[in-house]
Amino acid sequence: MLSVLEGEEVRRRWAGRLLAQADAAARVREIVAAVRDEGQAAVARYTRAFDGVDLQGAGFRVTDREIEAAYKAVTPELLEAVRRARDNIAAYHRREVRGSWMEADDDGTILGQICRPLKRVGLYVPGGTAAYPSSVLMTAVPAQVAGVADIALATPPRRDGTLPPLLLVAAAEAGVREIYKMGGAQAVAALAYGTEAVLPVEKIAGPGNIYVTLAKKEVYGVVDIDMLAGPSEIVVVADASARPDWVAADLLSQAEHDALAGAVLITPEEALARAVVEEVARQLETLPRREIAARSLENYGAAVVVPHLKAAVELANALAPEHLELYVADPWAWLGRVENAGAIFLGPYSSEPLGDYWAGPSHVLPTAGTARFYSPLSVATFMKRSSLIAASPASLQAAGRFIQALARAEGLEAHARAIGLRLEEGVKDEPRSLD
Hints:
Oligomer: single chain
Strand order of the largest sheet: 1-11-10-9-12-13
Number of strands: 14
Number of helices: 17
Strand content: 15-25%
Radius of gyration: 26 Å
Structural class: alpha/beta
CATH class of the largest domain: Alpha Beta
């Protein structure tokens, strides 16, 4: 159950949640190594063990027939919701697109940057206790906007060996047809190393549980990853203007994801904190996923009473949460003080689920304090950049002695000679000084 705690206790608990992830590291390394060495046979073995389904004979890849059947199973209202959400996400991420550029200096030097999409990426979408078609859209649409040619999506199968129809429809609407029924660390390893059934990718993106997150960490370097996005988090900074039932509902919206999820209210109003604790208990009684939410709140949830809003924002910055709600009378006045957060929601009507499903920014966000240095998934996640340098004879002649001096100061004589040989040739252009 949600408790009223001190800020330092909350920081200790959230740090403890990070330490708890180390317990699964050895198991993840074992799974990743098995898939690397044995290929799809290891994926099949772990799928039987963890998901309770044998896909060796039926195959792991979703067929066109399965996608067609999924469309028939989805209501027109849900199909419209998927399409509208997809369009919102695409419109937001198109604003992020940055093209290649080149600029010529007066001395003839040309500098620039070439931006290209990755050719093949793997997307991981969580499953198991819930289905997340929203995560399909929030990863696949930015990849499509970036121009990625090949997208492979992996998600855990249900016990009957199928995938949720809405998830398949969301993938198809986002332009993804290469879909695999595999989850967990074994799916991450299959995407990274490739198997008889799956071609390897260049980057893996998408959220997941502790095993998925640790597996992404394990394969990093073989492939790139978007971030270490673990269990969900929300921090609500609220003042006396906040409604306790709305705050409670927002906290529960993240607590129901995972027993490791964190949900914290920070407020200078003790009466609000007490009211939210009571409201959380009331709403929890009728929540379908109440057992998961209750464990999350018991271990990583809290209502923290602080002296003033400045202290509330300072504690929020220290936690660096995935989602931060500024549920205060004048949220824009406090926005400038926010330093660390994956996504920031301003005002009473900007409830966190708006970001999960509809607004446009990807809901794949840094967690576990990594918002201090990670950014949300974006078009840039699926791009790579090459620097462009084209020197003119005059520019090299003018800069040569400085380059040689720096190279020799580092003890790299071959570097200096590579420049010196060109300077000895001389140039027809009049040398230009860098002074």
